[in-house]
Amino acid sequence: MADTPLLSVRDLSMRFGGLLAVDRVSMDVAPREVVSIIGPNGAGKTTVFNCISGFYRPTDGEVLFENKPMHRLPGFKIARAGMVRTFQNVRLFKEMTVVENLLVAQHMQAERNLLKGLLLTRGFRRREAELLDRAAHWLERVGLIEFANREAGNLAYGQQRRLEIARCMVTQPKLLMLDEPAAGLNPNETHDLDRLIVQLKEEEGITVLLIEHDMSLVMGISDRIYVVNQGKPLADGTPEEVRRNPEVIKAYLGEE
Ligand SMILES: Nc1ncnc2c1ncn2[C@@H]1O[C@H](COP(=O)(O)OP(=O)(O)OP(=O)(O)O)[C@@H](O)[C@H]1O
Fold first, then answer.
1. What are residue 11's phi and psi, to 5 degrees?
2. Which atom of ligand 1 is least distant from the CA of 14?
3. Domain boundary assignment for the chain
4. Angle subtended at Cα 171 by Cα 238 and Cα 217, rounded to the nearest 5 degrees
5. What is the DSSP letter of 149?
6. For a pocket test of ligand 1, which of 12, 37, 45 has the largest count of ligand atoms closer than 8 A to its C-beta?
7. 137-152: per-residue pLDDT in tens?
8. How far is the CA of 38 from the CAs of 178, 209, 232, 251, in angstroms?
9. What φ, ψ does residue 244 adopt, rounded to 5°?
10. Alpha-carbon span 84 to 123, nearest angstrom
11. How many whole angstroms separate alpha carbon 111 and alpha carbon 174?
12. 255 alpha carbon to ligand 1 midpoint, in Å?
């Protein structure tokens, strides 16, 4: 890996009572890379994500983002530092419109002076116009602009997942973390997701860390892959290296 890592995870461990769900996992993600975490069900992938994004405070280890420690910060501060994520199940404000979901995300992200907002100053109105422009830009980018005023809960499932990605992107992150983004998508939607992730990397310079079980998606878009098994790191490398690794085939790919 040529670049200094954007994200560096060192000997991360997470214990739930008697269960060591994550056992000394380390990984590096360089700027503009697409990196995937794979492994069998219950391997600890989501727990790694939860520790990196501040949902859990890790039992041990370090999470460094742009060389700054994140592992003791609350989730909202980690998001403000530029790491944002989606969840395995869609978490939109379903009764709000598509565009409202993107405006709320930006309001939640920004440190705002509430009083200034109430006073409706010119600066405040200019800022609101910027948020709307950014929302429109990302709706266009993920192919949802024509649904801007529709209730988010009325979108098709694949569209909801794209809206979740747009909701992350309006906050202008440096690292986008996607937890099983292809789960529940049909082959056409998975193909669109594949193209979107590649565009985010190539055209927007976004770094992507994802957990995914769809091996053709993972093998097609990843620069590097980390494999975890029963909480422990099993292997890492390029898609080709991982695909050929006998231990990975035995623990995971062999079951496919
Ligand atoms: N909050 C929690 N409390 C107790 N145990 C937990 C908690 N979260 C996860 N676990 C356990 O930790 C282990 C790892 O779970 P995790 O969800 O991280 O796996 P995963 O690799 O993401 O699985 P999947 O591919 O099925 O999503 C499992 O045994 C799970 O039951």
1. 50, 45
2. 12
3. 1-82+173-256, 92-172
4. 30
5. T
6. 45
7. 999 999 999 999 999 9
8. 12, 11, 12, 11
9. -90, -10
10. 27
11. 18
12. 19
Q: Assess whether the C-beta atom of 157 lies below 6 angstroms from ligand 1.
A: no
CATH topology (fold) of 1-82+173-256: Rossmann fold (3.40.50)
Name residues whose C-beta falls within 8 Å of residue 226's C-beta, 6 or more positions apart in sequence. 25, 27, 35, 36, 37, 38, 233, 235, 236
The Å distance, Cα 68 to ligand 1 centre, comes to 27
Give, for ligand 1, the residue of 47, 52, 180 to mutate: max count of ligand atoms closer than 8 Å to Cβ: 47
39 lines ligand 1 (CB under 6 A): yes
pLDDT tens, 72-98? 899 999 999 999 999 888 888 999 999
CB of 89 closer than 6 angstroms to any ligand 1 atom: no
